[in-house]
Amino acid sequence: MLRWSFWLVFISALCFPPWFGASYGKENPRKDDQKKEAENTGRTHYMGRTIAVTMHFTGAPWLVRESREREEECSTLLKALKLKPNDVVCDMGCGNGFYALKIAKLVPQGKVLGVDIQPEMLRMLRERARVSKLKNIEPVLGTLSDPKLPAGQVDLVFCVDAYHEFSHPEKMLKAIRKSLSKKGRLALVEFREEDPLVPIKPLHKMSKQQILKELIPNGFKLVEQFNGLPWQHVMFFSRDDAWQDPSAE
Ligand SMILES: C[S@@+](CC[C@H](N)C(=O)[O-])C[C@H]1O[C@@H](n2cnc3c(N)ncnc32)[C@H](O)[C@@H]1O
């Protein structure tokens, strides 16, 4: 008799687990998952542009190739940023930290927040910073739609060859806007689509016109441009305080 009651309790526990009652009659949890999945999948196109697939971390050696300085004139780009020693800079989509390390040396009293969505990239960044004995680099693991930046504290969001990969451009731009300090700027560096001689795949290039088309309606205004690089546009934006967020209620 005891044995039968044991089996009865055991089988009921399997068929009706403790969370059975809790979910019954509430919203279908599978529907919620579908919503989340749709959000996380992100966009494939934005304002007439095809969004490029994220560069995989196994391609990271290309970012630190010996010819990069000669081809892209990276030192000229760094000078154009006009950094101050105590600036807080975000290297957005930092990869293995090619720029993060160089910027860390230019802001000895400030810091560099190196944001990427691939933990493997951040591991390489951490290791390279350790070897170079740089203590003012903070790796930050962002998500596709949230760079996890502190609000109102970043003097420069520096985004080299990464924006065109953002699958959630509007959410990322909103978060970048929120992260900027009063004098904060966003420097967008993208390979020039207008120039067929720039030897980069078309999906990884952007035209000035397209950049403006996407940035202006997201609350940014163009404040400066630097046209002195061989392959890339450098466009500086600040927050447009007159802008009203159409998604805000
Ligand atoms: C082509 S790499 C450029 C790396 C670096 N900026 C450089 O110039 O050496 C683009 C990087 O952007 C990152 N990325 C793509 N989408 C991102 C997002 N939503 N937030 C942060 N990083 C992102 C990728 O993981 C990749 O490491």
Describe the structure.
The structure is a single chain. The protein is built from ten helices and ten strands. The protein has 249 residues and is α/β, with parallel strands linked by helices. It has two domains: 2-41, no CATH class; 47-239, Rossmann fold, CATH 3.40.50.150. Strands 3, 4, 5, 6, 7, 8, 9 and 10 form an eight-stranded mixed β-sheet that branches. Helix 9 links the parallel strand 6 and strand 7 (180-192). The longest helix has 14 residues, at 2-15. The N and C termini lie far apart (64 Å). Residues 4-37 have low confidence and may be disordered. Bound molecules: S-adenosylmethionine (SAM). S-adenosylmethionine is lined by residues 54-55, 63, 93-95, 98-99, 115-118, 121, 142, 144, 147, 160-162, 165-166, 172.
Number of E-state strands: 10
Radius of gyration from CA coordinates? 23 Å
- Overall pLDDT: 88
Question: How many helical stretches?
Answer: 10
CATH superfamily name of the largest domain? Vaccinia Virus protein VP39
Portion of residues within helices? 25-40%
Low-pLDDT segments: 4-37
Distance between the termini: 64 Å
The major β-sheet equals: 8 strands, mixed
Q: What is the number of independent domains?
A: 2
CATH class of the largest domain: Alpha Beta
CATH-defined fold name of the largest domain: Rossmann fold
| Cofactors and ligands | S-adenosylmethionine
Q: What is the SS-derived class?
A: alpha/beta
State the order of secondary-structure elements, H for helix, E for strand. Answer: HHHEEHHHEHEHEEHEEHEE
Residue share in β-strands: 15-25%
Shape: globular
Can you tell me the CATH architecture of the largest domain? 3-Layer(aba) Sandwich
